[in-house]
Design a protein that fits this description.
11 helices; 66% helix; mainly alpha; two-stranded antiparallel ribbon; 2 strands; single chain
Length: 256
C-alpha cells in the first residue's frame, strides 16, 4: 500500500495549497463560460462524450449523487470519528450529508418544475407543431413527442455541487495523516480518499463535457450558479454558525 500512501500525500499537499482550495469554485464558472462559447461557435468536434449515452454519463453522472454519498458517507464517519467519538459531534457531521441531499433534491425538483411550467409539447423535433393534449414533459415524451422548456442544466448543478461538497468534507485528511489509526482503518480511509478525488476529477471532466456539448449557455450558467450558491450558503455562511452541522475538523472558520 506504499503507492497509495504516496498518492494520498500528493493529493493532500495539492489541496493544502491555498490557491487551489480557495479558488476551486471559480473553475466551474470558467469552464461553463468557455465551454458555452466553444459550443455556440461549434469549435469542438464531436467525440464519444458528445453522446449522452456514453458510459460515464449513463453509469456515473445520471446517478452521481448516489456515487458521491456511497463514497463520502464511510469517509465522513471514519475521518470524523478519529477526531471525536462523541455521538452529538458525529451526528452533527452526518447531518451535513442530509443538508446536502436536501439542497440537491430541492434544486433538481425546482429545475424539473420550471421546465414543466415553461414548456410545450411538440410533435416533431423541429418544434413547429404544438400538441396541446400533453402538458407535462413526462407525458409528452412518453407519447413519443418532444418537450421544449427552460431546461436548467441539472448536470452542471450536480457535478459542480458534488465536487465542492467532496472538497469540503475531505479536508480533514490533512490532519489525519499524523493521526494514530490502526492499519485497517488507515487503509480504508486512504482508499476512500483516493476514490473521492478520482470521482471528483470525473465530475469536473463531465462538467466540461456538458459545457461544450449540451444545453444553452444561460441554462448551464443558472445550474452552475445554483451549485455555487448551495455550497456557499452552507459552508461559507450557515456552517460557521453555532446552530449548524459545523465545518469538518480542522477546517476552522479562520482557515477559510
Amino acid at each position: 500500500m506504499a503507492a497509495v500512501d504516496v498518492i494520498v500525500n500528493n493529493l493532500v499537499a495539492l489541496w493544502r495549497i491555498p490557491a487551489v482550495r480557495h479558488h476551486f469554485h471559480w473553475i466551474f464558472l470558467l469552464i461553463s463560460g468557455v465551454g458555452s462559447v466553444l459550443k455556440e461557435l461549434e469549435l469542438v468536434p464531436q467525440t464519444y462524450f458528445s453522446s449522452s449515452r456514453n458510459a460515464l454519463n449513463v453509469y456515473f453522472v445520471k446517478v452521481s449523487w448516489g456515487w458521491t454519498l456511497l463514497l463520502l458517507t464511510p469517509f465522513l464517519l471514519l475521518s470524523n470519528s478519529a477526531f471525536s467519538r462523541n455521538v452529538s459531534f458525529l451526528g452533527r457531521r452526518l447531518l451535513s450529508l442530509a443538508v446536502a441531499t436536501a439542497v440537491w433534491y430541492v434544486c433538481t425538483e425546482t429545475f424539473f418544475y420550471i421546465e414543466d411550467v415553461t414548456g410545450s409539447c411538440f410533435e416533431t423535433d423541429n418544434l413547429t407543431v404544438v400538441n396541446l393534449e400533453f402538458t407535462s414533459k413526462v407525458a409528452c415524451r412518453r407519447a413519443g413527442f418532444h418537450w421544449s422548456g427552460h431546461d436548467i442544466s441539472g448536470h452542471s448543478f450536480i457535478l459542480a455541487y458534488s465536487s465542492l461538497f467532496i472538497m469540503e468534507e475531505t479536508a480533514p485528511m490533512a490532519s489525519l495523516k499524523t493521526a494514530s489509526l490502526s492499519a485497517l482503518p488507515r487503509m480504508v480511509l486512504n482508499l476512500l480518499y483516493v476514490a473521492l478525488n478520482l470521482i471528483m476529477i470525473m465530475w469536473v471532466w463531465m462538467f466540461a463535457c456538458t459545457s461544450v456539448y449540451f444545453h444553452e449557455p444561460l441554462h448551464k450558467l443558472l445550474g452552475t450558479l445554483c451549485a455555487l450558491m448551495g455550497w456557499y450558503l452552507t459552508y461559507r455562511v450557515w456552517y460557521l454558525k453555532r446552530l449548524s452541522p459545523g465545518l469538518p475538523p480542522p477546517c476552522l472558520p479562520k482557515e477559510e
